[in-house]
Amino acid sequence: MPLLVYWITEAIRWAGALAGLFAFVHALSQRADAYTAADRKTKPIWLAITGGSTAAMALFAFFGPGMIFWLAGLIAALVYLVDVRPKLIEVQRGGQSW
């Protein structure tokens, strides 16, 4: 049973790290002026936030003494994915809603 728990926690850990990596790559690929047009922080700030969150999730375990850093990284990546990313997409499409 402990081996199963190990693999489940590792899967959660790396799924979070991949979400952070996706957020970082998306932040990297966006235009810098889109961030200010969307009324969000600047592009370098979001690159630092998403890059740091990805590093935290890759370096610290989901279950262990560094879990607080892993959890903070996950929250930072999710804020980008559910708040900033949709606004950037909307701004770059011209604000049209279908």
Features:
single chain, 98 residues, mainly alpha, 4 helices, 79% helix, elongated
Give a quick rundown of the structure:
The protein is an all-alpha fold and 98 residues long. The chain has helices at 2-29, 32-37, 43-59, 67-92.
Describe the 3D structure.
With 98 residues, the protein is an all-alpha fold. The chain has one domain. 79% of the residues lie in helices and 0% in strands. The protein contains four helices and no strands. It has helices at 2-29, 32-37, 43-59, 67-92. Helix 1 (2-29) runs antiparallel to helix 3 and helix 1 runs parallel beside helix 4 (67-92). The longest helix is centred in the first third of the chain and has 28 residues, at 2-29. The protein is elongated, with a radius of gyration of 15 Å. The relative contact order is 0.17. The chain crosses the membrane at residues 6-25, 68-84. Keywords: Membrane, Transmembrane, Transmembrane helix. InterPro entries: DUF2516.
Count the helices. How many?
4
Overall 3D shape: elongated
What is the total domain count?
A: 1
Approximate helicity band: over 70%
Give the amount of beta strand, in percent: under 5%
Element string (H = helix, E = strand): HHHH
The biggest sheet, with number of strands, parallel, antiparallel or mixed sense and barrel status, is: none
Distance between the termini: 49 Å
β-strand number: 0
Mean pLDDT: 91
Gyration radius, in Å = 15 Å
Main structural class: mainly alpha
Low-confidence runs: none
Transmembrane segments: 6-25, 68-84
Pfam family, one: DUF2516
Keywords: Membrane, Transmembrane, Transmembrane helix
